[in-house]
Amino acid sequence: MGEILDEIADCVPALRRYARALTHNRDGADDLVQDCLERAIRKRSLWRPIGPIRPWLFRILLNLHRNELRHLRRNPTAASLDEFTERLATPGSQFEHAALAETARAMERLPDEQREALLLVAVEGLDYRQAAEVLEIPVGTLMSRLGRARTALRQMTSENGRPVLKAIK
């Protein structure tokens, strides 16, 4: 039992990164990761060690996030002032910070399905098969979503048809 808990603990930084990218809110991301960890520990008997535990945890986190989005659509709430001011805060004026902020804003504008796929592959480093498992879609569908996401990001982060940032891999 201790081994699975150690594996889960090793995944916490990646879960926090992914949750933050999905929610755009530090507190919301922390709550989402906590809910994910609680569920994973409570349901650890369902884990079948046929591969890495990381995709299983990402699937739990993503399902919890989607459930929360459905709940918010049915019961909308006003955004807090802290959340609003956090979004207005921008990094220093260096080109790299500006480019990173521009890319992050562009990623926020992607459709959820494209952003989820791109984050799993480009940020979290999951291979296509693992990312497709997390999203519960065929690998071909994942590749299509990634292609559309990358094309959209290139368009959103270009000036006069010329890329401002290096091409997104």
UniProtKB/TrEMBL annotation:
Under Gene3D superfamilies, the record lists: 1.10.1740.10, Winged helix-like DNA-binding domain superfamily/Winged helix DNA-binding domain
Show the CDD domains listed in the entry.
Answer: Sigma70_r4
Q: Which residues form the RNA polymerase sigma factor 70 region 4 type domain?
A: 104-153
Q: Where is the PhyR sigma2 domain?
A: 8-61
What are the record keywords, sorted?
Answer: Sigma factor, Transcription, Transcription regulation
The UniProt similarity line reads:
Belongs to the sigma-70 factor family. ECF subfamily.
What is this protein identified as? RNA polymerase subunit sigma
Which organism does this record belong to? Answer: Xaviernesmea rhizosphaerae
Taxonomy of the source species: Bacteria, Pseudomonadati, Pseudomonadota, Alphaproteobacteria, Hyphomicrobiales
